[in-house]
């Protein structure tokens, strides 16, 4: 009996020693888990860009919000953009991608915490009674309930890098949505300006058509009175017919522009009332010395940078595969042949373990994955540099277009005023018999062309402001560079 107790005490002592060793290993593993990642942290690349844009105005500094379209002071435009942001399918697609990226980030982040599982099973079986070992209970039942957990120790920063990559992807999806939003608002504003320009051109053409019809009636009366020839009547009829053809073409273009706005806003039966483009004010232009650092506010540039962050983190994930993977496992529960005994202390079972996995020979597979991740980082860097350079060009182009279209509009305004005066003089001279009808036709054509060109230049100037807002990422903040 004494020998049995001694052997039992020795067995318990061995179990305790084993438990202590296991705890020590677990503590050491947790301490080592705080080691720094084997890959380098992300650093933003330094690109050689001019400090300022090449073409700026001397306007006073102005602060512009991201709701830049409100500067046109047009409630119809505001309503159209609000509908587009709510109904457009591209926006809905971007929102769904954000939700997907967030879910991926949550899944990856969950790997940093232990996973706890509950396993319950019961079975009844019969085994053979033939053989050297007698079967005491046959058939017999077996019931088992156990809580188990497993936890991978992040020695090399693999899980942290994976979470960093997923977070960067989630941010990238958000910036992608902002890019779509900026592009959508720009498209709605540009199409709205086209619609307003066509409204003004239609209004001008209708006025000119009335003038041509009046001239046609005058030439017919002069023909009846023997003052003019049939040639004047035919020329007047040609001029009126051409004006009607111009009006039909402008009406067609307006309908197409309205259809485009309907698709952008998601309102397929959209109807927009007629208005004059000259009623829209010209928004404030950017201040002198606009810094090129404002490019960092563009959502497409931020999206490209987050893709670089993700690519850099993925290199760390690939490198970690070359090193051992260490996991802790544990289980606690009960097992018995009777369901009512499973919670008794005698039925208690537990397990604890430390697993290590180390690749020995993989024919260069893991190294190839590191090379792939490095190549993807180079691709992301090239895309980022391309986004920066394209953004810088777009801003400079928009600044040049705005300045040149402003000068063009001023010149065409003077031209249409002079053409209108020339038309009035030619019509008065024709009525008084001092000149032929050909002079009137030529003056009508010149005024029509110049007046249409002025309206189109107004549209081009306003469209240049839209392009500038888009190129600057939606606006600029004067305080950031004062």
Topology:
Blueprint lengths: L1 H31 L42 H13 L1 H22 L4 E11 L14 E14 L4 H67 L5 H36 L33 H22 L4 E12 L11 E10 L7 H68 L4 H35 L11
Antiparallel strand pairs: 1-2, 2-3, 3-4
Helix pairs in contact: 2-4, 3-4, 4-5, 4-6, 4-8, 6-7, 7-8
Walk me through this protein's architecture.
By secondary structure, the chain is α+β, with helices and mostly antiparallel strands. It has a single domain (45-112, 157-323, 364-481), classed as Outer membrane efflux proteins (OEP) (Up-down Bundle), CATH 1.20.1600. Helices cover 61% and strands 10% of the residues. It has helices at residues 2-32, 75-87, 89-110, 158-224, 230-265, 299-320, 365-432, 437-471; strands at 115-125, 140-153, 325-336, 348-357. It has a 4-stranded antiparallel beta sheet. Helix 2 (75-87) crosses helix 4 (158-224), helix 3 (89-110) packs antiparallel against helix 4 and helix 4 packs antiparallel against helix 6. 33% of the residues are buried.
CATH class: Mainly Alpha
Span between termini: 93 Å
Shape: elongated
Strand content: 5-15%
**Largest beta sheet: strand ordering:** 1-2-3-4
Helical/strand content category: alpha+beta
Q: CATH superfamily, called what?
A: Outer membrane efflux proteins (OEP)
Helix content, binned percent: 55-70%
Which key features would you list for this structure?
482 residues, alpha+beta, Outer membrane efflux proteins (OEP), 61% helix, elongated, disordered N terminus, disordered C terminus
């Amino acid at each position: 009996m004494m020998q049995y107790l001694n052997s039992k005490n020795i067995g318990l002592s061995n179990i305790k020693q084993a438990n202590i060793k296991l705890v020590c290993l677990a503590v050491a593993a947790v301490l080592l888990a705080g080691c720094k990642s084997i890959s380098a942290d992300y650093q933003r690349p330094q690109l050689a860009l001019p400090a300022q844009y090449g073409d700026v105005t001397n306007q006073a500094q102005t602060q512009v919000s991201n709701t830049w379209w409100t500067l046109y002071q047009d409630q119809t435009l505001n309503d159209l953009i609000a509908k587009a942001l709510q109904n457009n399918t591209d926006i809905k697609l971007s929102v769904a991608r954000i939700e997907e990226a967030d879910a991926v980030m949550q899944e990856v982040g969950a790997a940093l915490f232990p996973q706890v599982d509950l396993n319950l099973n019961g079975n009844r079986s019969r085994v053979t009674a033939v053989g050297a070992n007698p079967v005491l209970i046959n058939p017999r039942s077996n019931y088992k309930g156990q809580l188990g957990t497993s936890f991978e120790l992040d020695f090399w920063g693999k899980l942290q890098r994976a979470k960093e990559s997923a977070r960067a992807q989630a941010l990238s999806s958000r910036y992608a949505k902002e890019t779509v939003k900026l592009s959508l608002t720009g498209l709605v504003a540009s199409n709205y300006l086209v619609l307003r320009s066509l409204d003004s051109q239609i209004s001008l053409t209708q006025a000119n058509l009335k003038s041509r019809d009046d001239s046609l009636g005058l030439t017919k009366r002069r023909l009846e009175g023997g003052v003019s020839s049939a040639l004047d009547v035919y020329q007047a009829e040609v001029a009126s017919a051409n004006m009607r053809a111009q009006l039909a073409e402008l009406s067609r273009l307006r309908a197409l522009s309205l259809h485009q706005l309907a698709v952008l806003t998601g309102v397929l039966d959209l109807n927009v009332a007629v208005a004059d483009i000259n009623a829209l004010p010209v928004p404030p232009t950017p201040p002198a010395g606009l810094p090129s650092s404002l490019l960092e506010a563009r959502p497409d540039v931020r999206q490209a940078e987050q893709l670089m962050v993700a690519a850099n983190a993925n290199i760390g994930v690939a490198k970690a595969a070359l090193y051992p993977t260490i996991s802790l496992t544990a289980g606690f529960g009960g097992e018995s042949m009777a369901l009512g005994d499973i919670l008794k202390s005698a039925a208690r079972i537990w397990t604890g373990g430390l697993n290590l996995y180390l690749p020995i020979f993989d024919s260069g597979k893991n190294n190839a994955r590191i090379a792939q991740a490095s190549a993807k980082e180079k691709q992301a860097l090239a895309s980022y540099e391309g986004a920066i350079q394209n953004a810088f060009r777009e801003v400079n182009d928009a600044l040049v277009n705005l300045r040149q279209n402003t000068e063009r509009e001023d010149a065409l305004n003077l031209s249409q005023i002079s053409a209108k005066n020339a038309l009035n003089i030619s019509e008065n001279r024709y009525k008084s018999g001092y000149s032929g009808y050909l002079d009137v036709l030529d003056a009508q054509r010149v005024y029509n062309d110049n007046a249409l060109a002025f309206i189109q230049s107004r549209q081009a100037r306003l469209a240049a402001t839209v392009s500038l807002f888009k190129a600057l990422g939606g606006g600029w903040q004067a305080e950031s560079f004062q």
